[in-house]
Amino acid sequence: MKRLLSAALLLGAIATPAFANMKAGDKAPDFTAQATVGGDEFTFSLADALKKGPVVLYFFPKAFTKGCTAEAHEFAEAAAQFKQAGATLIGMSADDIGTLHKFSTQECSSKFPVAADPDLKVIKAFDSVMVSTSSKALNISDRVSYVIGPDGKIAYAFADRNPDKHVENTLTAVKALTKKQ
Questions:
Q1: CATH number 3.30.565.10 given to 2-180
Q2: Strand blocks (E) in the chain
Q3: Residue-wise pLDDT tens digits, 15-30
């Protein structure tokens, strides 16, 4: 029985979903990043985007992988709903801008921008670096979604390596936030 309990605890520790270190109420780190939408490159500024309303910033591990592609498709399908709710949507990974040019057009359907953070500066600032089961940080982002209010504070944070609920949860959070304003 003791072995079974120990095995269950160990398995739970290995299979535990990611946890966002930034929480609702935390001040979001300001940043600019090289981004692309539909293959057109530009500099994304969080401060400028927040002047227009809330920002949904979602981190994804690696372009063109199964989970990240599925998540991008879901965000692309919901892009008009985010816009209607007054939110700016942007994805970010440690991929280089060339890879993200292709990802933006092919997987995001040119519906929203994705930003490159190959040095992990923004990913680290948002405490979104993926950590392996050995507690070693990897050189990719974890799957974490944030809704940042126009005041620059985190309104909602969701971390789960499974991409299934990120779109649904962040859209619900944006609608709740904009209802309050």
A1: no
A2: 32-37, 40-45, 55-59, 88-93, 114-116, 129-131, 137-141, 144-148, 154-159
A3: 334 455 799 999 999 9
